[in-house]
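Following up on my earlier thread - several people asked me to post the actual chain instead of describing it. Fair enough. Here it is, all 314 residues.
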Amino acid sequence: MHRDQVPTSAALVRALLTEQLPHLAALPVVPVSSWGTDHDVYRLGDQLAVRLPKIAWAREQGALEARWLPLLAPHLPLMLPRTEALGSPGCGYPFPWAVVGWLPGQQADPDRDATERTAADVAGFVTALRAIPPHLAPDPPVRGPGQRGGPLAALDDDVRAALAELGARVDVVVDSRGGTGGRRAVLRCWEAALEAPPHAGPPVWSHGDLVPGNVLVDPAAPGRPTAVIDWGSAALADPATDLRPAWHLFGGASARAAQQRFREGVGADDAAWARGRGVVLQQAVRALPYYWETNPAMVAQASRALAAAVAETA
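Reply from S.P.:
Thanks for posting it. Predicted structure:
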């Protein structure tokens, strides 16, 4: 997926464990199939997993989660990853890595799990996260201009450049999913987000990437979330940043009802809702050209969310 991606393997995991955590080295190591963009994950025995960054921008995530999540977890209604050990570069591998507890559940499915119960549970999680005192965890970053969770206006050039790179492909993405107008409809949606009043209060805790791959649900009780993983984008930010589930998690015939239940649960006014659409749009149009040839599942996810957001302002 990335030009400078670092390859990993079960043999590498075994070598790192043997070198640094020998008490775990005899456990079975099994690759976990994933279309995630930052880490490769390996199941380690029945209760653990090893996460190895595959790109330099994710190298600090293991340490961040080990530092913050034990402080955030007691305040939240869903499980969070638990760090069991941190590893160092070694065996030719250049990044820090982590051993975490294996969390029960499976990736949320926007069609299967688009229920009002799911929406209520995810809204409860977002509301609880926002209510955590900003400085409960040490040194939280504050998202500023040009960053996810910062002012949208600073991302205008970024969005327009990504649309230019997408070219006619954006028309295919939008129109093939029941939308109309392609690029023009995307720009209307983006400009409506830019016109929305900015967040007037202090920034709040935000996960920053509440998409299907990061929300786990109970396979025995479809639609019941169990955990939220992958906290690499966590920060103090505009609360609209965590409205992404509205366009990512809810699909199919129940999408509208679930989306409305989520909106009511988080108390999003029209301005926040428009900014939330803008967050989804910006992330999608950036992801689409980058992953178009290398990560079809990511392209499908971004396409679906973009079309859902654009449909509201078409």
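The first helix runs from residue 10 to 20. That should answer part of your original question.
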